[in-house]
Design a protein that fits this description.
Helix content: 40-55%
Structural class: mainly alpha
Order of helices and strands: HEHHEHEEH
Number of strands: 4
CATH topology: Arc Repressor Mutant, subunit A
Distance between the termini: 26 Å
CATH class: Mainly Alpha
CATH architecture: Orthogonal Bundle
Oligomer: single chain
Strand order of the largest sheet: 1-2
Radius of gyration: 13 Å
Length: about 110
């Protein structure tokens, strides 16, 4: 049950990432309530039950790199979806200074 609860918290955070922004795995982990969940975020997004409602493509690594094996749609799909959101992708990389979600943790 713990795992399901953690996944639900992760999905709630990812649903909030606005169009035109990305978040890192670590950022999602912190916002979901546990800074040690970065890897769990990856697992949760890999089994995303609602790709249309949970925009997992807006999550990148701590350096702004896109996933090499994007789970939904294959190679380059994450890049295409981010570009549709207005996010510039250069060399499989997003500029976090420009595009990282500025969500604060309270």
């Amino acid at each position: 049950m713990e795992q399901k609860n953690s996944y639900q918290k992760i999905y709630e955070v990812v649903r909030q990432i606005p169009k035109g922004s990305v978040a890192t795995y670590g950022q999602v982990a912190v916002l979901a309530g546990n800074p040690r969940w970065a890897r769990v975020v990856g697992y949760a997004l890999h089994v995303n039950p609602d790709p249309d409602g949970i925009p997992c493509y807006r999550v990148v690594n701590r350096e702004g790199r896109l996933s090499d094996a994007f789970a939904f749609g294959g190679v380059n799909q994450q890049k295409l979806l981010l570009e549709e959101d207005g996010i510039e992708v250069v060399d499989n990389h997003v500029d976090l200074m420009r595009f990282q979600w500025k969500k604060l943790v309270y």
